[in-house]
Design brief:
The protein is built from one helix and six strands; from the N terminus they run ββββββα. It is α+β, with helices and mostly antiparallel strands.
Length: 100
């Protein structure tokens, strides 16, 4: 019995929100697989998005008429990170003003 080809999916790490895109490298041929390892520095999350082989892709080929999320929109994790960064920068500016 031949195994079905991996299912292309837009994958994001459940821990940090970074998008996961599978691609072959010199060290890894990208064979069909079920578990995925986050490549974000310091994350280390390994997760299984489905019980079949999947491959992380940048975007899906098709889009439905009712779809209201477009490739390129920020994930919830990315939005939260952007808010946290903006708050940190604002706090640093306020502290710098006090020291003048």
């Amino acid at each position: 019995m031949t195994e079905a080809p991996p299912l292309p999916m837009v994958l994001h790490c459940p821990r940090c929100g970074m998008q996961h895109i599978d691609q072959a490298t010199d060290e890894w041929s990208n064979p069909p697989h079920r578990s995925h390892a986050c490549q974000a520095v310091g994350c280390g999350c390994i997760w299984r998005p489905a019980d079949v082989a999947t491959t992380g892709v940048e975007r899906t080929i098709t889009q439905g008429r009712a779809d209201n999320w477009k490739p390129g929109d920020l994930t919830a994790g990315q939005q939260l990170g952007a808010v946290a960064l903006a708050m940190f920068v604002d706090r640093q500016r306020r502290l710098n003003r006090r020291s003048l």
